[in-house]
Design goal:
- The chain is flat, with a radius of gyration of 27 Å.
- α5 packs antiparallel against α6.
- Helices cover 55% and strands 21% of the residues.
- By secondary structure, it is of the alpha+beta class.
């Protein structure tokens, strides 16, 4: 407070509130620092899955994996999810709270292949299971089916070894077909989907699941036929002639 010519003057200091653009820029810088580590974790998981698929194909003449997809969650998706969870909007909170920043989707041919791939991956001594959600045995209300596991995978950087969580969704081609179309329908819907449509989608999921298991049984039956042909006297004679 100042006094000049008998008049008191009060000086008020106005501090500028943190600019939202400054906060977002800081988030972008922090996200850029961790993005590469999560990408490395995805590469590590992908390499192990491809090795398991190749080895299984060599031993059993069958590729359990149809294809693999992967992604690192974008910054906008991270912010949106933290907001929905009513968590502080920060990268440190995201690392502690979110298990799906790094995500891998494994699409298998048959239901048995799902559990086979999960078991083979989890049997590796430097992979540890954090969380498992089995939506095959316990489908979601809308009919969604898939096996979700979150694992810690080692990533080697210049300062040493880090364990990074990766969410792995493992499903069949049929499950992926339904999930992709269902997501597209929900995404394009401007209003809440009527219950009758939800029921129809669940009914479609049930039909697809039944077909999934039937195709697996057909595959097993053909395998048994092939095994019997390999063991038949004619095949043994033919092999001796060669």
């Amino acid at each position: 407070m100042e006094q000049k010519n008998g008049v008191r003057r009060v000086r008020i200091e106005v501090r500028r509130a943190p600019d939202i653009n400054d906060a977002m820029e800081e988030l972008r810088r922090e996200y850029a620092q961790i993005q590469g580590v999560y990408e490395a974790a995805i590469r590590e998981i992908n390499a192990r899955l491809q090795t398991l698929d190749s080895e299984f194909s060599f031993k059993h003449m069958h590729n359990p994996i149809h294809h693999i997809e992967s992604r690192v969650k974008s910054l906008s998706s991270i912010v949106k999810k933290l907001h929905s969870m009513q968590c502080p909007i920060s990268i440190s909170c995201a690392k502690k709270t979110l298990h799906d920043i790094a995500g891998v989707r494994v699409v298998c041919r048959y239901v048995d292949d799902i559990y086979r791939i999960a078991d083979l991956l989890l049997s590796q001594d430097d992979i540890s299971l954090i969380l498992e959600k089995n939506y095959i045995e316990n489908p979601k209300a809308n009919g969604y089916r898939s096996l979700h596991i979150v694992v810690d995978v080692p990533v080697y950087i210049s300062k040493g070894k880090l364990f990074i969580p990766v969410e792995i969704q493992i499903r069949t081609v049929a499950m992926d077909f339904w999930a992709t179309l269902e997501h597209g329908i929900r995404y394009k819907a401007t209003d809440e989907i009527p219950q009758s449509i939800v029921d129809e989608l669940r009914a479609c999921a049930d039909v697809i699941t039944e077909t999934d298991y039937k195709m697996q049984e057909i595959f097993k039956a053909l395998q048994m036929v092939g095994d019997k042909e390999d063991e038949s006297p004619e095949s043994i004679v033919d092999a001796d002639k060669k």
